[in-house]
Design brief:
Helix content is about 35%, strand content about 25%. It is an alpha+beta fold and about 270 residues long. Strand 5 and strand 6 (about 115-120) form a beta hairpin. Bound molecules: D-MYO-inositol-1-phosphate (IPD) and calcium ion.
Length: about 270
């Protein structure tokens, strides 16, 4: 297996930056939009174009790697060994569609099933988050080291989508509690940006009931290298081949949010007797 080098990672970073610029320059034509399953679930021709661009660029950078992207449905429960790219060509597609100027490109690189490197680029703020396992996490070249800030001293982020109401009662009970405890709550519409902002210390926690591997594959390394935790709500590791629930935060805010979710689930589950 090829050894990862700084040169490989710089080339990946450049490709992610280019894809981000392509997204920023796009003019969304309404006839280039398709609906996916459920309410408010879209894909645009730019999601597809960015994915085609990244697949081509990445295969030139690391030809032995398998490429998996949100738009090609090539995910299966058996992740191959060796290198695998997991890519979201546009994270925050609905924001993109409505000109919110808040979307990003997210690309993770797995090695033997484990996240090894990650890039999240928000072209609207020109923010590049990158990390390499064992070599640190950076925002625009500045090393990230999250302080262990509790909920009471920071912002709490959460995500939900109109096309999935599973656990929605528990989520909003949890959000209510986060509103009571944290300095403020926010929902950005792009999980990858939200997770990276937690790594950067802009918020202390992010939670969502169902995310897909391409939403967090890049951010896992960015968060962990910055000293944050990311797990499923039951504390188990997030999966790189199936959807996962997510809590990501400073160690203190992660533990507090986990307890809040535990209580919210108890309160929202009918007792059955
Ligand atoms: C979505 C965004 C959103 C999150 C959803 C994701 P997409 O990704 O990250 O913030 O709440 O769960 O599916 O569809 O914009 O790539
Ligand atoms: Ca996407």
């Amino acid at each position: 297996m090829t050894d990862l080098t700084e040169g490989i990672l710089l080339a990946m970073e450049e490709a992610v930056r280019t894809a981000g610029r392509m997204m920023k320059q796009a003019h969304v034509e309404k006839d280039g939009i398709e609906k996916k399953e459920g309410r408010s679930n879209f894909v645009t021709e730019y999601d597809r174009r960015n994915q085609v661009y990244l697949e081509e660029a990445f295969s030139g950078i690391l030809p032995e790697a398998v490429f998996m992207g949100e738009e090609n449905d090539r995910f299966d429960a058996h992740l191959p060994m060796g290198y695998v790219f997991i890519v979201d060509p546009i994270d925050g597609t609905t924001n993109f569609l409505f000109d919110m100027s808040l979307s990003c490109v997210s690309a993770g690189l797995l090695k033997d099933g484990k996240p090894e490197a990650g890039f999240v680029y928000n072209p609207y703020t020109d923010d590049m988050f990158r990390a390499w396992r064992g070599h640190g996490a950076f925002r625009n070249g500045r090393r990230l080291k999250a302080e262990d800030v509790p909920l009471e001293e920071g912002l709490a982020l959460f995500g939900c989508v109109a096309y999935n109401r599973e656990h929605i009662d528990a989520l909003f009970l949890c959000v209510w509690e986060l509103f009571e405890k944290a300095l403020g709550i926010r929902s950005l519409g792009t999980a990858a940006v939200a997770l990276s902002l937690v790594a950067a210390g802009a918020a202390v926690v992010y939670t969502e009931y169902v995310l897909k591997p391409w939403d967090y594959a890049a951010s896992v390394v960015i968060l962990e290298e910055a000293g944050c935790r990311i797990t499923q709500m039951d504390g188990s590791p997030v999966s790189m081949s199936c959807p996962s629930s997510v809590i990501a935060g400073t160690p203190k805010a992660w533990a507090q949010t986990r307890e809040i979710i535990r209580q919210a689930e108890k309160a929202s589950t009918p007792s059955g007797c």
